[in-house]
Write a structure and sequence with these properties.
The complex is a heterodimer of chains A (about 160) and B (about 325). With about 160 residues, chain A is of the alpha+beta class. Chain A folds into two domains: about 25-65, no CATH class; about 70-165, no CATH class. Chain A has helices at about 25-50, 95, 100-105, 105-110, 115-125; strands at about 70-80, 85-90, 135-145, 150-164. Chain A is elongated, with a radius of gyration of 26 Å. Chain B contains 18 helices and two strands. The chains are: A alpha+beta (about 160), B mainly alpha (about 325).
Chain lengths: ~160, ~325
């Protein structure tokens, strides 16, 4: 820990080689006030805000509880191919412009306005012009069922559907 | 300085920090931008194909920000990248940092607002946004500057607080949204089932391990503010442990808080030693620093034991320590 000839000094009390640049009282006050205001807003957002309060929203990643005997929800996208068959396709921003978490964050909107599923199909047209054009798509909520924290089975439910 | 000694809060916020540490932070933070926009999170270009799904944040409405169009997304992205590269290149000389840094902060913030307006907000960016906001407030920071400054101390403290807040406040988000039963829920099983790696999926056979990990995470988050008040070796050990946590998360569910870990390492560690060591070794400051920085960023993805780029154990002001003995300093000492 101790280097010979150089006693450990806390960083805040170190004698710098050159004199340290100080701030005026006003500059310090402004900085303290700014830091205090941002911290206060972040605390308010944590307890009363939601994601749309970014940058002061709650850090809610993986904050919800999945009961040990409950269901895990996974949104999947199924697309109708030109031959009429349905196939599960990646719900990913490189394929449909948005990713799974983003779609899951807007489920009520898709339910209220199934035409939005068509926007995913159109985004696929633009992002993957070389692939066959989908003639429709449906968002499906897949429920992975748990018993004692172990996976025991799957159920599915259509959230929204759009056909060209 | 008399006032500094008198008030513990002021002393804690403004106890001088070497200016070179800010320069190292600037270089890494600005070099991260092209990496972020082009490789790690190139969402902007994809969102341009799905602007119908735009769902504005409160801040976008308050600031009357325009609804994103493919053109706006392109302009923001492609002006940020050259600005960031120029800022990183000029950071060692300290030139244009306030102007460039402010422009980068504004553009990056707008870029984030756009990309978080599609139904999903990431929580690994707060410390980085704070860093971009405070880095331009430090004047006179040059790579070979041996002095320290109160402005540098405040800037790095703000980033440290934001890093810690990301852990600490997320514990309260869990209590708020998941309730106290969060610690006994199957949330980590969910995380692994939804996006587990091959390694992570092995853990599904050990549900008790995932269960108790939730207790560990909650305790880690609640006690995270301790790192703000540690010093020297203990602080570096905790920083290394936190970086190790992110490595484990990455290995199990392929989520990495890249900008957050960058801030964790660069705001807490005495990175000015990279510069001084490079100078002492006379290997040409710039290239050695660059090599050391690359090592530091690589450390995010490497083993936990290597997560700390330079872990000298001498006091911060022991300038000009010879380069030898670096490995020895990495060993735990008594």
């Amino acid at each position: 820990m101790i280097t010979p000839g150089a006693p450990p000094v806390p960083p805040s009390a170190q004698p710098a080689e050159q004199p340290s640049a100080t701030l005026s009282g006003r500059a310090r006050a402004v900085r303290l006030a700014a830091a205090g205001l941002c911290m206060a807003l972040l605390v308010v957002g944590t307890f009363w805000g939601d994601d749309d309060a970014f940058p002061f929203g709650p850090f809610r990643m993986y904050s919800t509880s999945t009961p040990p005997n409950g269901n895990i929800h996974v949104m999947v996208l199924k697309a109708r191919m030109p031959d009429g068959s349905w196939r599960e396709v990646p719900l990913d921003s490189v394929v449909v412009g948005v990713n799974r978490a983003e779609v899951e964050g807007q489920v009520p909107r898709f339910q209220a306005e199934p035409a939005l599923v068509g926007r995913l199909v159109e985004a696929h047209d633009r992002l993957r012009p070389a692939e066959p054009r989908w003639t429709g798509a449906r968002l499906v909520m897949r429920y992975l069922k748990l018993r004692d924290r172990r996976f025991v089975g799957t159920e599915e439910k259509v959230v929204a559907e759009w056909l060209r | 300085m008399a006032a500094l000694r008198g008030n513990p809060l002021t002393r804690w916020f403004f106890g001088p920090v070497p200016l070179a540490r800010v320069v190292v932070f600037r270089i890494a933070a600005y070099l991260f931008i092209p990496l972020d926009l082009l490789v790690l999170r190139p969402l902007g270009s994809h969102h341009a194909s799905a602007t119908a799904l735009y769902k504005p944040l409160i801040v976008a409405d308050l600031l009357h920000l325009p609804r994103p169009t493919p053109e706006l997304i392109a302009v923001v992205t492609w002006s940020l990248i050259p600005l960031a590269l120029v800022a990183a290149a000029l950071a060692p000389s300290g030139r244009w940092q306030r102007l460039l840094g402010t422009a980068i902060f504004v553009l990056y913030f707008e870029q984030l607002i756009i990309s978080f307006s599609f139904g999903k907000v990431d929580h690994d960016r707060i410390a980085y946004v704070v860093a971009l906001a405070v880095l331009p407030t430090v004047a006179g920071a040059r790579l070979r500057e041996r002095g320290s400054a109160e402005s540098a101390a405040w800037a790095l403290r703000c980033v440290q607080i934001a890093v810690v807040a990301t852990y600490f406040l997320s514990a309260f988000a869990k209590l708020r949204f998941g309730g106290v039963e969060w610690v006994n829920s199957a949330t980590l099983v969910r995380a692994v089932m939804r996006r587990g790696t091959g390694f992570g999926r092995l853990l599904l056979d050990l549900p008790w391990l995932l269960h108790w990990s939730q207790w560990g995470i909650m305790l880690m988050e609640l006690f995270s503010p301790v790192v703000l008040f540690l010093r020297g070796r203990w602080q570096r050990i905790v920083v290394g442990a936190l970086a190790g946590f992110h490595v484990v998360v990455y290995a199990t569910i392929s989520i990495m808080f890249w900008p957050h870990v960058l801030c964790l390492l660069l705001a807490f560690l005495p990175t000015e030693r990279l510069v001084r060591r490079a100078e002492t070794a006379e290997t040409g400051g710039g290239s050695a620093v660059a090599a050391a920085l690359v090592g530091g960023q690589d450390a995010h993805g490497s083993a936990a034991g290597e997560a700390v780029p330079v872990v000298g154990d001498q006091p911060v002001d022991a300038v000009g320590e010879p380069a030898e003995g670096r490995d020895a300093q990495d060993q735990p000492q008594r």
